Amino acid sequence: MIAYSTLGTNDMDRSIEFYDAVFGAIGGSRELTTPEWTQYGRKGERAKVCLTPPHDGNKATRGNGAMLAFETTGRSAVDAFHAAALTHGGADAGQPGIREGTHYVAYVHDPDGNKLCAFAAK
Q: Fewer CB within 10 Å, N side or C side of the chain?
């Protein structure tokens, strides 16, 4: 159902460095970069994640309670996602581990404060 999601950024270069590493850790890659838009995807999947400065010209802010979650191929990908995030300017929002007894999950904030999750079935 979801075609694409957007995350606001105040520094596109910093966000590209962060998301190249984080999405690379879970099989994603940058597909398009323009002065206003950077798009990421994963081979064989239609859904995209896009970075953009807010179109109204105001500062990008995170949504309290908003989060994007990305399914991975296994625990090692979740661990790599979390490590890449922390290495590239992100902040820990929940160390990798089993949650709810059903999934292996890690949470991070990107450099603009957006919350992200990577998970794998237990």
A: N
